[in-house]
Design a protein that fits this description.
InterPro entries: Anthrone_oxy (IPR013901)
Number of strands: 0
Largest sheet: none
Membrane topology: Multi-pass membrane protein
Oligomer: single chain
Keywords: Membrane, Transmembrane, Transmembrane helix
Radius of gyration: 19 Å
Distance between the termini: 17 Å
Strand content: under 5%
Family: Belongs to the anthrone oxygenase family.
Protein name: DUF1772 domain-containing protein
Structural class: mainly alpha
Length: about 160
């Protein structure tokens, strides 16, 4: 029985990290936000709950994506003599880390609005604020689910490249 090469191990680590990040990100839109949307809590309280979940994800997911970037980058570097395989691993790396610019570029407005609401006083909540918060959470959920596709695509390309060796 032969041992897997360091390139294969790196590719597997990148695939695992990218897939895990994608699933964790998607779970927020598919599980957490729908649960928040069923609540009758005031807008600022909902926004604080969202902010708590968001801040935990913000601390973890870029690190996981960064580790996948390093793993795919190593696999890409090691594969440079094998035709286009290095480009495929490089693409997987880029797609996985794309959650960072996607968040900063396309989600910062919604994130900022929700963070502002989270900082609001609980007693100041009214029906309009609660409705606004729910609408922002729905918009955030859609953007977040879209964001989860980047590392999923990275994992898929990494797996396709690894299996195709």
């Amino acid at each position: 029985m032969t041992s897997p090469s360091s390139t294969s191990i790196a590719a597997m680590a990148g695939i695992l990290g990218a897939g895990w990040a994608s699933g964790g990100i998607a779970a927020l839109s598919l599980v957490t936000i729908p649960a928040l949307l069923t609540s009758s809590l005031p807008g600022p309280v909902l926004a604080r709950q969202w902010a708590s979940v968001y801040n935990k994800g913000k601390a973890l997911m870029p690190v996981v994506a960064g580790l996948s970037l390093v793993a795919f980058g190593f696999a890409s570097y090691q594969s440079r003599q094998y035709g286009n395989r290095w480009k495929q691993y490089a693409s997987a790396a880029g797609l996985t880390i794309a959650i960072v610019p996607f968040t900063l570029g396309l989600m910062s407005g919604v994130n900022g609005q929700l963070m502002s609401q989270a900082a609001g006083a609980v007693g100041a909540a009214d029906a309009t604020t609660a409705h606004d918060t729910l609408e922002l959470l729905k918009k955030w959920s859609t953007l977040n689910l879209t964001r989860s596709l980047w590392p999923l695509l990275g994992a898929a390309i990494g797996l396709w490249t690894l299996v195709g060796q």
